[in-house]
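Hey, resending since the last one bounced:
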Amino acid sequence: MAHQVFDIEKLANFFAINELSGRHHAARYPNMRFYYNPVTSLLEPIAYDINYILPANYIEGDNNRIEVKEDREASFTDAFFSDRIFFSKYIQALQQVSDKEWLDSFFKSIKKEYNEKLIILSTETPSYFFDGKDILYDNQEFLKKILNIDKGMQAYFKQYNKDSNLLEIELGNIQMFPIEVIDMQYSDEILFMPSTGIYLPSKEALKPIEFVVEEFLISDQIIWSDEMVDDLNVRYKILGTDNILQQPVIPWAHLDDNFIENDFIRQEPNWKEFGFIQTNEELKQITIEPGSWKIGKNLIIPEGYHFVLGEGTELDLSNSAKILSYSPLEFIGSEDRPIVIKSADSAGQGIVVINSKNISILKYVNFDNLTAPTQGDWGLTGAITFYESPVDIYYCKFTKNRESDDYLNIIRSEFIIDTSLFNNTFADAVDIDFSNGSILNSTFIDCGNGDGNGDCLDFSGSGVELNGILINRAGDKGISIGENSQVVGNGIEVGNSRIAVASKDLSEVVLDNVTIHDSEIGYAVYQKKSEYGPASIKISTDNSENVKTYYLLEEGSSLILRNEKMKPNHKDVYMSLYGE
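The structure tokens again:
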């Protein structure tokens, strides 16, 4: 090791002064000179061939490690920096030379000689200006920024080993200096000591953080509880320094070892495992046979087919089962024999269609008691979701979803919803994100019964046509238009709701033949998010009855009712409505 061969105090000072000068030429292999001290039997560096003072833009210790990987070609400086004792001394030396008092003292000690040399230089070359002193002070600031870090590591909770009574914590260094881990603290009182000394090597530049699993001992006097993980902090310091830092432990693993195997969205299509599903390769159809079927595990449909259900078919999802399709749906029932997709035991989830280029058709389909698909760290907000997959929905019923933000969520897709019913939804009934389409002749009743804040229709970044819409008992907003959406509509009725129509964040709404009754607020027009701007609503004809507040209009936004431009009557509508 380096400390057995070199005088590391002098060697550390040599490297630190090179960093301060911004010049590393003397530390290159061909330029290094050493004096062998016969008393200590150690090599001492000789500062040789240092000709310039330059602005510092990197340091020698960056990307050097106290552990040199076998697969990395060793450099000359690895012989020094792979020694933890030297690296510690090097950081201490950097702290010293970056101290302004140290540099002030140096210039004070050479003041007479320094001034004499400046006079000689100015006599021989009057135009010459020596700026090396200013550069050295600037380089000190550069070194200070590197040394004075607020956060040096990441820590994740992996598991509690009951048999050995040890906590396994994943630790990763996120900066250029090695880290010495001191202990782990619970609730500012109880300390968990590492089973062995822990030193984390420097993070390699332009490479991912390297995590290691370290063990911490739990005292016999402490009974571990999983709730304790929320109050764990790893105490550590940069190698060679005295300043103790703390890093809260994130209460989950940074990466699941079985992530690929367990991640739902990466599982292979498995439709052939279901005996009641038939495949027609000639027609490229995957068809569920008519009848009532219980689906107790995930069903995944591949791309390149049409997923077909016929009239009278009933699917009962249980045991967290969900349906994922990369092909368009052709679920076509009839008025007398609709398709039913439900979860009788309230344990099944929902349906998601992803990246289907062809249009899905849903006709006479009844959805009942479903919830948003989730598994592990993956999850959606809509019980029925179409992502970049066009869909046409006719004569469908969406009833009583469980604990999901949306019953139907359409994202970046063309769509039509016609003559359909949404009833008793937990939160939002329909959430349209960055999509274009029409909602026609449809009814929305009891939206947001679960959390009390649901919207019947929620549009973000979308262009939507509305016609023949009936809304009754929206927990929050009957129609919410936001994030630069454009909505036009005719024949809109909203009753018994908190807010009938809200336009926000650069959205433009043009409606005709609007009826609002028995509601708290008729129209709300405002800006919610700073990255957007004011909104507008234009109503050609409307009728209101028993509406407590006809409108809330924020300065900058626009509300035109029956060709009359309304005056702003509120400074901050969003704060007034939600107090956030």
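The chain has three domains: 2-147, 153-255, 261-578.

Sorry for the duplicate.
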